[in-house]
Amino acid sequence: MFRKPERLTGKVVDRRGSPVAGAVVTSYPFYQQAFRGVLSTTTDRDGRFVLDNLEVNPLFMKAYGLPFEVFHPDFADANTSAKKLPGDVVVTMPAGCTVSGTVVDTVARRAAKGALIRVDNIGDRGPFYTLTDAKGAFRITVPEGRYDILVETKDRVCRAIVRRELLAGQSVTLPAFELVRGGVIAGQVVNSKTGEPVSMSDGVP
User: Fold this and answer.
1) Which of 2, 26, 199, 204 sits CB 3.0–4.6 Å from 40 for a disulfide?
2) Closest by alpha carbon to 129, among 106, 110, 153, 108?
């Protein structure tokens, strides 16, 4: 069902038509990331890219095209598709809100390296993810919208930022997230009438 490997070429630009260098183009995204060298590439100084060795089911291609995504830290992600292969496309990166901040582990008294930042849209987009660096800092650009912003890491919890409005074209620096010691909450849910345990298959009593 798969035909010979094809090639997709193209150019990534901003809303003014200027080339965007350093954008990651991938047809195999995973949590807004790409596996280096696996159906992914990076745009050059002129915003150009080449994706080789694309194997696509002809029936899927006819119905949907080739979905692919483009990531760059200064823009919201671009989700688009190529209608034919081989092909040459132009991708315009959408404006977004750039969010930055830091995460501090108050238990260990140090920056929280590798903490997962989850930005949940109150709507139909996302969630979006990034990780903190060695200094506990993070930076992510997301589409305009209202978001809950959470930090996830092992054995720690912290207060989330909820329903924060993020506007395209703005840069927002959040207050520092302070991690405290977390734990596991265990318990049992019982039916108030029968006293019997309630399972997921029972539905809502």
Assistant:
1) 26
2) 153
